[in-house]
Automatic annotation (TrEMBL):
<dbReference type="InterPro" id="IPR009976">
    <property type="entry name" value="Sec10-like"/>
</dbReference>
<comment type="similarity">
    <text>Belongs to the SEC10 family.</text>
</comment>
<dbReference type="GO" id="GO:0006887">
    <property type="term" value="P:exocytosis"/>
</dbReference>
<keyword id="KW-0175">Coiled coil</keyword>
<protein>
    <recommendedName>
        <fullName>Exocyst complex component 5</fullName>
    </recommendedName>
</protein>
<dbReference type="Pfam" id="PF20667">
    <property type="entry name" value="Sec10_N"/>
</dbReference>
<dbReference type="InterPro" id="IPR048625">
    <property type="entry name" value="Sec10_N"/>
</dbReference>
<feature type="coiled-coil region">
    <location>
        <begin position="49"/>
        <end position="83"/>
    </location>
</feature>
<keyword id="KW-0813">Transport</keyword>
<dbReference type="GO" id="GO:0006893">
    <property type="term" value="P:Golgi to plasma membrane transport"/>
</dbReference>
<dbReference type="Pfam" id="PF07393">
    <property type="entry name" value="Sec10_HB"/>
</dbReference>
<feature type="domain" description="Exocyst complex component Sec10 N-terminal">
    <location>
        <begin position="45"/>
        <end position="154"/>
    </location>
</feature>
<dbReference type="InterPro" id="IPR048627">
    <property type="entry name" value="Sec10_HB"/>
</dbReference>
<feature type="domain" description="Exocyst complex component Sec10-like alpha-helical bundle">
    <location>
        <begin position="164"/>
        <end position="693"/>
    </location>
</feature>
<keyword id="KW-0268">Exocytosis</keyword>
<dbReference type="GO" id="GO:0000145">
    <property type="term" value="C:exocyst"/>
</dbReference>
Amino acid sequence: NKTKIHLFQLIYYFNEPFDADEYIERLAWRTPGGGSKGGAEGFDPKKLLEEFENHIEELKQLDERIQRKVEKLEQQCHREAKEFAHKVQELQRSNQVAFQHFQELDDHISYVATKVCHLGDQLEGVNTPRQRAVEAQRLMTYFNEFLDGELRSDVFNNPEKIKEAADIIQKLHLIAQELPFDRFADVKAKIASKYHDLERQLIQEFTAAQRRGEIGRMREVAAVLLHFKGYAHCIDVYIKQCQEGAYMQKDVFEDTALLCQRVNKQVGEVFSSPETVMAKLIQNIFENKLQAHVKEKLDTRPTELEQYLTNLYDLYTRTTALAAKLTEFNLGSDKHTFLSKLIKSIFSTYLDSYIDMEQQYLQTRSASILQRYYDSKNHQKRPLGTGSIQELKERIRQRTNLPLGPSIDTHGETFLSQEVVVNLLQETRHAFQRCNKLSDPADLPKNAYSIFLLLVEHLCVDHIDYALEIGLSAIPSADAKNANLYFLDVVQQANTIFHLFDKQFNDHLMPLISSSPKLTECLQKKKEVIEQMEVKLDTGIDRFVRPLLNTNKTCNFLSDIASSKVCAYVSKQVERVRRSMDGKNVDTVLTELGVRFHRLVHEHLQQFSYNYMGGMLAICDVAEYRRCAKDFRVPLVLHLFDTLHALCNLLVVAPDNLKQVCSGEQLTNLDRNLLHAFVQLRADYRSARLGRHFS
C-alpha cells in the first residue's frame, strides 16, 4: 500500500512541470531525519539513503508501467491506422464508381439536349415560314384594301388601335418602296399618305401626353415612332416643349442647369436611347439660348474695353462651369469633347481676338493710371533719353558719380505712389486671371508673357525707373553744403514696390509659365529689370553719402558741443538708412557711410598740433565718435574707430613709452608711417626728438 501511495504521488508530481532540485528537496523533507537540520530526531544519513534507494526502485517500476502503456498505445495506433487506410481505399473505389456513373449520365443528358435542339430547329424551320406566310397574307389583305381605295379593316378606323395600325402601315410603306412606280403609283401615294397621317397623329398624341405628364403613354408612343422617319421630329417637339416656361429667371445658366436636371430623369423613362435625347437637348440650348445670350452681351460691345473683357470672362467662366455640371449626365461615350465643341462654337470668334483686346486695354488703362497720378501732382513728365547718348551718360555717371544735368528741386516728392502700384498690379492680376481662363493652353505662356511685358513697361520703367531718374537728378553735388535725405525716401518706396511686383510675379505669373520655355524669358527679363534698378539705386546711394558728410566738414570736431552735434546728426542718418532699406542693402550703405565718416574724422585730426590738454580733448571726442560708431552695427566701422582711438593715445603718452604703446595689440599691425604721422602732431615732437623712436 505504501508503494502504491508513492507511485500515485509520483504520477501526480510528474503531471506538473518537473524541477529536479525541488523534487529532491521534497523527498528529503518528507524522510524522517533527512532534512538539513534533521528535525527533532537529528540528521540520519542511513534513513535518507534507504529512502533514496526505495524511491529509485519505485521510479523504475513507474517507468516500466509507463513503457508498457506506451507500447500498448502504439499497437492500438497502428491497428487503427490500418483500419482507416482500408476505409479510405473503399471510399476511393466508391467515388470512382460514382464518377463513372456521373459521366454516363452527363453523356446521356448531352445526347438528349442535342435531340431537343435539333427538334426545336426543325419546328422553327417549319413555324417561321408559316408565320411569314400568315404575316404576308395579312399584309396582302391590307394592301388589297389600299388597291381598292376603301379601308374596311377596323384597325384603320379605330383610334384605339393606332399602335397596331402604325405597325402595319410602316411595313406596307417599306413594301411599297420596292414596287415599280408606273404600275403602283396610286397605291404607293395612298400608303404614303396614310403613313404620314399616322405619323402626325402619333406625334400629336405624344405632345398631348407630354403636356398631361403621362410618362407611360409617352413611352408607348415613342416606342411606336421609333421605326418612323418622324422619330427625330418627335424628339425635336419634346425638346421644344421641355423649354417652354423653363427660362423665367434672369439667370440663363442656372435655368439651364435646373432644366437639364429635371429632363434627365424623364428621358430615361420615355426614350430607348436617353443619352441621344439629352445630347440633342443640350446642343439645342447651347446653339440657341446660350449663344443668343452671349451675342447680346458681347456683340453690342460697351464703349469701355474693361466691361467687354469682364463680360467675356464672366460668360466663359459660367459656360464652362455649366458644362462641368452637365458631365454628370449620360451624353454618350465622349461627352467632354462634345461639350468642348459646343463651347468653342459659341466663343471661338471672341477668343481669337481676346489677347489683342487685353493688351489694348492694359496699355490704355495703365497709361491712364500713371497720367492721372502725375496730373494730381501737377507734374509734367520729363522725357528720358534713349539710345547711345543715354547709355553714355549712364556709364559716365556710374564711374564718376558726376551729375549730368541740372539738379532738380522735387520739393520732397518721390513720384512713387503705392496707390498707383496697387492699381497697376490689380489690373494685371485680373488680366492674368482672364488670360488663364480665356487662352488656348498652347498660347497661354505666350499670352501671359505679353501681359508681363506690359507690367514691366508701365510699373518698372514708366513709374519706378522714372522716379529713380528724378531722384538721381535731385541729389545735390558732392560739394553741396546741405545734405538731402530725399533719395532715401525714393529707395524705401522703390524697395517696397518691387516686393509687391515680385510677389505678383511668383503668385500669378509663375503658375501660367512654369512648364513652358517662356519661363526662362520671364526670369531673364526680371533679372534685367532688377539689375537696371540696382545700378541706379547704387549710384544714387553713393552720391547721397558724399554730401551727407560734407555737411559737417566745416565743423570744429575738437569741441564737446561739436562732437555731440556730429554724433546726433550721424545717428539720425543711420536710423534713416535703416528705415529706408532692408536686407544686405542696409549693411552695404552703413559700411560705406561709416568708412567715410571715419576718413573725415581722421583727416580732420591731421590738421592740428596737440599739446597734452589738446590730446586729451581729442581722445574724448574720438571716444564719443566711437560710441556713435556702435549704432552702425558694422564690425569694420567699429574696428576703424577703435584703432583711431588707440592712435589718439599717441598724442598724450610719455615719450619714453611711445615704442611700447606702438607695439600694443591695436597698433602693432599698422603701417609705421601712419603711426609716425600721428606722433608728428604732438607739440613736443621736435623738442623731445620723438622721431628717433621711428628711425
